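As the work plan foresaw, our protein records have gained a structure token line. A representative record is set out beneath this paragraph:
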Amino acid sequence: MNQCETLIINARIVDGSGAPAYPADVAINEGRIAAIGQLRDWQATQTIDANGKVLSPGFIDVHTHDDTNVIRQPQMWPKLSQGVTTVIVGNCGISASPVTLKGDPPDPMNLLGTAEAFQYPTFSAYVDAVNQAQPSVNVAALIGHTALRQNHMSTLDRTATPEETAAMRTQLSEALDHGALGLSTGLAYANAYAASTQEIMTLAEPLADAGGIYTTHLRSEFAEILDAMDEAFQTGKHARVPVVISHLKCAGVENWGRTVDVLKALDEARKDQVVGCDCYPYTASSSTLDLKQVTDEIDILVTWSQSHPEMGGKLLAEIAAEWRVEQIEAAKRLQPAGAVYHCMSEADVRNVLRHPATAVGSDGLPNDPLPHPRLWGAFPRVLGYYCREQQIFELPEAVHKMTGLSAERFGLAERGFVRAGYWADLVLFDPETVRDAATFTDPLQPAEGIAAVWVNGVLSAQNKQPTGQRAGTFLARGRVGGAG
């Protein structure tokens, strides 16, 4: 008689590969999937009847800013509640480690918290802190270019000297030796914008030997987006590494409709190098309040302001009218601040989301007092709104974009698929009812239709409640670049 810790019966398996669903039972033992098939003769400590619901790999959030939250708030309910079992931190050039601050964290590193949150001068110290906190989700990490710049440069409004770049490379190499996934940049932000392409290329050179990856928040997501994409592709070719374009979008009203050209450029690049992208399933972005993005053509919601906290939750246009100034002047007065920009077209979001090279990432900001709803709702929104209601892809493809594609791209070994011997990161959901409940005005809402979540074989959430069991761990880089 075969025995296991957990037996899930009567499930409909969507295995993460994009293959059609099939009925089966799944046995879990010692953190891994022990068997898949008709397993009624197995003995289990706990048996759960799926009643025909879908059992898929746990969702992998490839684009997060949870760097400090996985340690300070290890329950990670905004992610666990929507079926996420692994988060990738360190995106957009900002990471919690390796960091030694000289004062307040430079923008946009302040998205990760105040100076007190940055306690990890080495990447190994960060890894130890994650494992000691034992968050409810697994954690894999990129190293942020802006974080490295602020460690080694006296000012960030210029490109790095060869000596400064060499120092950054040494620190990046140390992190790669301790399991970092690769390098991320946020070249659109003021504290990285002055970096030359040569600085990025030179810094990226250690990635290839380590099997790492290069991800980038492009230098522009507006009119110059094609040039910015070309810079990213050239960096990947120079460093001989896979490239991921973060939260690919065409921002700004004058840019709407250009995803046709943008995706054509992506496809052209994919002919001779490994290139992919991620996106979140919303037409609004969210970040710090950036003067370059202030315009009266779109709604801009101020989510927080250090100098005028009473203005959080108001539109920038309303604040400007109240103060009887132009919006750009109001934005200056509010800084440092956060904002949601309703800057994309629905058609463009759909074009990017359905592209075969696109994985799903939330880009949620957990420290924002009024966060974009993607923090709590990105993955159920893909399943409910875009898959079930809008039918832009079938369920197996939707799940693939949130699991198998992501695991292969970032080298997360034995994750992202429902396969015997793989780690039992699993989510059980009802495909007929799963949906995002979070909204822009009421964003702190767990999703509907997520029945249960297992992390490393441990039942971590059930019926919209955390079980209190936290079984996440730090995931070191495995084989990278299996999917373009």
